[in-house]
Protein 1
Amino acid sequence: MHVIPGNLPAVVVIEDDLYMQGILSQCLSENFSPVLFDNGMDAFAYLQEGNIPDIIISDLNTPLLNGIQFLEQVRSSGFFGSIPVIILSGVENTDTKIKCLEAGADDFIVKPFNPRELAARLKMILKRAGKLTVN
């Protein structure tokens, strides 16, 4: 999908902390169209309803379906397997990062994060995936 000026890339955000949801919504709304969920199960159901976002951001520790479980579900699906996924975590642990990347994450970002850095990483991944053709 190529983005036409005025159409913002769709981002599914899975984050159970209300404060962090607000931060993510605010920092993404300028350049993206975020859809927020507080658990991976509801987000996966949203995908199964035919809603295919351009990229997904998932917190590592969410209820019902955590970030790794969600990522494994997405990667094992023929329909969703190519959607880029970024994992967010408050845990800065090399083993956790490696586990996420090996499970198919496109990036791993530690909270707290710089909103400009998050936006830059999203744009880079979308450009690499051929889903973003404008700045």
Protein 2
Amino acid sequence: MRTSAIEAPAVDLELDARLAEVIAERRRRAARFSQPYVQLWDAIADIVMRGKKLRPRLLLDGYHAFGGQLDAVALDAACAIELLHVALVIHDDVIDSDDVRRGELNITGRFSADAVARGALRTRAQNWGEASSLLAGDLMLTAAHSLIAQLDVDDETRRSVLEIFDEALFVSAAGEHADVWLSMHIDDASSYDVLAMMEHKTAAYSFQAPLLLAAALAGVDINVHERLADIGTHLGVIYQLRDDVLGVFGDEETIGKSTLSDLREGKETLLIAFARAHQRWNDVAEVFGAPHLTVADSERLREIIVASGALDLVEALIADRCDRVHELIADTKLPEHLRSRLTALATYCRTRRS
């Protein structure tokens, strides 16, 4: 179940098979209801099976590096963390009013487009699509918690993994809530505010939780957990900072979304927090977050972001965080395989292009 290349991990047949089994069982249950409900599970299956599986692979790598032996237990925990990711992604698209994910229609887009094709008014069709997404996200959350609750472990371990899982979702929700608040631009956001949001929204469930779950399931001493949490925080911030850069300066075909989206949404990133300090920001402030942002306006925004030094500052921060996490990893007594895996993961988070 181990992978050596972060950029193009080998297909993990066991992980994919178990995920497919979890979704297929629920799809069979859905057959008792309406055809659109079955179609909803088909759409969920597409999302689940198409993902990079970064989080579950990190959990499995950590678990085996720590000497864990209960492969079926670790596999279900890995599936749970992936379903949690899918749930948060689906809900995030609704929050951001996105109909596309990685170049393809998401659940909202699929169901609303189908409704329009059948003659529904666009407003009603959009409501149908968003309702379908919200319910799909809810279903993934309950499926994830069900897998965690039913792990074949002793009561103490079960309580521990449930607490880790619950905390990951709790903190991630706080980060998502803060992200929406910051994007309203009611208060001036500091770089500290934005970094805290990143740590909560991305790092908690994407990197901290997989590592902590791996340690808890393998019976690793609790003293190791704090260091794993620190490493996970840095990895999450690096990952999100790169994501924010790609969202404005990335290649649209590679990242699978428009590079106008974050600027049109008015997403408060460190790029923007730093660029606001530039004397020319007032020239473009009115178009940032404009619903009908044009390509020309987006180019003006990019020009100011670069001229302000914001892009260079963020790139420097990514490099600094990467150096710091490499030092943290090297300074631990973690198993050699896990240290190698985490070091490669940090480099991937820093240099990824999609």
Protein 3
Amino acid sequence: MAKLEVGDRAPEFELPDASGRPVRLSQTLERGPVLLVFYPGDFSPVCTRQLCSYRDSYERFVSLGVQMLGISDDTIDKHRRFTEEHHFPFSLLADPQREVIDAYAGTGMMSGGRAHRAYFLVGQDGRLAYIFVEKVSVFYRGADELFDALRAALQVRAQAPK
């Protein structure tokens, strides 16, 4: 896995959502910036708290024009059950082969060999505007902290010379 940096072109991917429909990054970017939220797994206590906090603050992210996609190596069926139980307004994408996880966040021992908890904001131009990878999998960026970081990253991009 090559280490991605802010300004790099985001690796393209297509993964199925909880309904089995394919979601392609480049097509999603046509509607605005995309926040990729990598997390170890559905129904775990920390991941559930994390994603529910984003659900509860989702309108704040939308106010920035940011779309959110959650990505783990769980199956389509498990994502469907997790989404139905917690009413997530954003899509969860299934990456059971961990190809996209490896291209972005990677896996680690602290997450039981599953995806690192990580955040990648992809600007509408397809370039990475914000990256944060948690060092310890039991921690996650709270909705307020994540919102502030995204707002700052988007402001920097808006002020950058074209």
